[in-house]
């Protein structure tokens, strides 16, 4: 059986295997970009993704290093014909995620 989302499947597998994330959210935003000139002639439905990744592997790494790590993991998917054209990343450690959640809850409670 062939997957309808082979690139998303590859993203999930590679990120999970390499980073063991406590949180991995993958959003396929490709349908929002089909009208872009760069997408003319492309039949791929998997070109634009947003990822939210929480992993201990990001500890002691600045955002650019975290992003380079993810780009390296997905280099084949980005280089492929009709591959990933755009990749938006939100990367954090579990501690950073917890602090962000506390800030959100504090702001919601102050309203």
TrEMBL record:
GO biological process entries: [4Fe-4S] cluster assembly
Recorded superkingdom: Eukaryota
Disordered: annotated segments: 91-111
PANTHER family: BOLA-LIKE PROTEIN 1, PTHR46230
Coiled-coil annotated spans: none
Basic and acidic residues compositional bias, start-end: 96-111
Gene3D superfamilies: BolA-like
Entry similarity comment: Belongs to the BolA/IbaG family.
Protein name: Uu.00g033760.m01.CDS01
Pfam family, one: BolA
Cellular component per GO, a single term: mitochondrial matrix
């Amino acid at each position: 059986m062939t997957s309808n989302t082979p690139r998303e499947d590859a993203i999930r597998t590679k990120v999970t295997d390499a980073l063991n994330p406590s949180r991995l959210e993958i959003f396929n935003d490709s349908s929002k970009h089909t009208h872009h000139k760069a997408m003319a002639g492309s039949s791929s439905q998997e070109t634009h993704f947003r990822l939210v990744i929480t992993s201990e592997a990001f500890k002691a790494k600045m955002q650019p290093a975290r992003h380079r790590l993810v780009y390296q993991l997905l280099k084949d998917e980005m280089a492929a014909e009709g591959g990933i054209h755009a990749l938006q990343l939100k990367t954090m450690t579990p501690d950073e995620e917890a602090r962000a959640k506390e800030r959100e809850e504090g702001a919601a409670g102050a309203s």
